[in-house]
Design a protein that fits this description.
Length: 242
Amino acid sequence: MAVDTLFKDGAAPVDDFKFNVRVAEVFDDMLGRSIPFYNEVIGMTAQLLARFLRSEGRVYDLGCSTGSSLVELARRLAHLDLQFIGIDNSAAMITKARLKAEMYGKGDRLRFECADIMNLNLRSPAAVIMNYTLQFIRPMMRPDFIRALYALMPSGAVLIISEKTINHDPLLNRAFLQFYLDFKRRHGYSEIEIAKKREALENILIPFSNMENIDLLRQAGFRHIETFFQWFNFSSFIALKE
Ligand SMILES: C[S@@+](CC[C@H](N)C(=O)[O-])C[C@H]1O[C@@H](n2cnc3c(N)ncnc32)[C@H](O)[C@@H]1O
């Protein structure tokens, strides 16, 4: 796996973060070193889907990147008759995802499309997963997007959302952020790399609080909503359509 050294050069100017070829190349390493409990959240997602999904249907992953989640879900849920469809508008990510699906021999059950998730071109999804991607959608677009997603989900469908979050209490927000910076240091990122990535993501990754995310889901129409995982400033939510 290629190691993420994207922000190692202290002298290079910082551009806005883009999910381009350079990022796709090191993305799997970046995920493990930047998202706390990434694999555990996929494991919990598999448990939730096994519990709430009917035995067949389509599982969509919006903002699927290199397809890590779907490949793992296809493996863990192999006993169910599910089709897995990943959508991402980064061609470089989709190329990687397709290669990965072939490599793991899951090509028949997994499909990857290069498209804008805002078009919501989904066919009767049994489940929709959106991990660490809603945070990249402009905040003012989020309510309409989640409302439209709710409208096209059939009853009984499952929505899983994971996000980086903020906290409204400034004291706790600072502490949680500090714990996250410590996490990145422990995973080998230098102060320069941490600062430069933060600058590149500013104005692009805009986190909501847990409360704001839950309100978004409730206002869209979901009635069964729960936070099923939280690590300081990272949370995962489940919402079920009645
Ligand atoms: C942080 S990554 C998601 C990680 C991935 N869900 C996982 O768990 O491995 C965010 C992804 O969302 C994609 N993305 C952002 N906005 C998008 C849009 N409007 N349409 C499609 N993909 C989008 C990016 O290209 C990127 O691959």
